[in-house]
Amino acid sequence: MEGKSVKLAMLTGKMNPSMGGPMRLLFISQGIGSLANLNPNMITALRGLEREDRSFQLLSLPTFDLKRLDKVIRSQRPDIALVMRGFAVPKLLIHYLRMKGIPVGVWLADDPYHLMDSHKIARPYHFIITQEASCVPIYRARGKACYFLPLGVNPSIYRPMEVNKKYESDVCFIGNAFPGRLEIIDALSPHLKHERLVLIGKWWDRLKNYKLLQRHILEEEIPPSEVVRYYNGAKIVLNIHRSCNDIQKNPRNTPAYSPNNRTFDIAACRSFQLITHRRDLEKFYKNGVDIVSYHKPLDLLKKMDYYLRHPDERTAIAQNAYQRTMREHTYDVRVRRLLVILQNYLINHGRSRRKKLIEKKRK
């Protein structure tokens, strides 16, 4: 019975690995901002988890100062530490946590596009969390404990709303012009020039048919507070995934199986989206019911034409995606799963340490 109780507690996220007080997580921000607002979204969700679950306590490190870190360690005794992305976090800080006996992991959010960088970032960490399912076996093959956890959405930012005519369009895409996206928009440009198109992001002047679409393009990055308005004003939001090695930092062309976090942002606005098909998409949404995917530019063109002419179907599918997103894909949902991952790691980590100590004593 005891084994069953422990397993149930792990699944429900109600067990402290030390079995004495809450699990204390030291969350370390990446040190740089992002358009996806990953750090504030995560901290907000973790604070909410702390309020609802007495088995969890959040500690945060606002600066990369070792004196401040030492004070946090001595006064609050974190059980485990997690870094978001890790690009700007000093290695010295990670090594200091290791020296103090605190397991430390990193949640990577740019796989597989930055795998060359990610491998370097991951070296000093005990464990890895990645938002891309295809990368889990790669890190494990390198001897790292690794877990899959996709990003999510903050529904206080991405939500349904009424917008003025400035934000209305037939077709909208917001994102930077990586090579695969340029290829698709160029292929569709003779058709898109006749639509009420909004295309927002950097580098779209690289289009072969740039002059054909120039009047539809806003060549800049915009904040989430504006993105959400354009999503709400569009009849169709395009979600064109990047190709897996578009910046030449994924030399083995490790594929991307998981949908991007833009998928959840669009759905949380109750907006209809046409999304590049990925292998694991159906693990998140039912194709043709919650979401509609496409495989090739011609397939995308046919589906754009069809759904522009069938507003009732668009509305029904967008509503299904919205409801499923609120149930399954918010950051509040993700951090509950994160808690189970961290508790599971601590239990396994404790067993491994005890085993090593026993073996050392026998020698």
Task: Give an account of the 3D structure.
With 363 residues, this protein is α/β, with parallel strands linked by helices. The protein has two domains: 2-152 and 330-362, 3-Layer(aba) Sandwich (Rossmann fold); 165-246 and 256-325, Glycogen Phosphorylase B (Rossmann fold, 3-Layer(aba) Sandwich), CATH 3.40.50.2000. The protein is 44% helix and 15% strand. It is built from 13 helices and twelve strands. The chain has helices spanning 2-12, 38-52, 66-76, 91-99, 115-122, 136-141, 179-192, 210-213, 224-233, 261-268, 297-308, 311-328, 331-362, and strands at residues 23-28, 56-61, 80-84, 104-108, 127-130, 145-148, 169-174, 197-200, 217-218, 234-239, 273-276, 292-294. The strands form two sheets. The protein has a six-stranded parallel β-sheet with strand order 2-1-3-4-5-6, with helices on both faces. Strands 9-8-7-10-11-12 form a six-stranded parallel β-sheet, with helices on both faces. Helix 7 links the parallel strand 7 (169-174) and strand 8 (197-200). Helix 2 packs across helix 13. The longest helix has 32 residues, at 331-362. The protein is elongated, with a radius of gyration of 22 Å. The two termini are 35 Å apart. The model is unreliable at 1-15 (pLDDT under 50). InterPro entries: YkvP/CgeB_Glyco_trans-like. This is Spore maturation protein CgeB. It comes from Marininema mesophilum. Residues 183-339 form the Spore protein YkvP/CgeB glycosyl transferase-like domain. Pfam families: Glyco_trans_1_2.
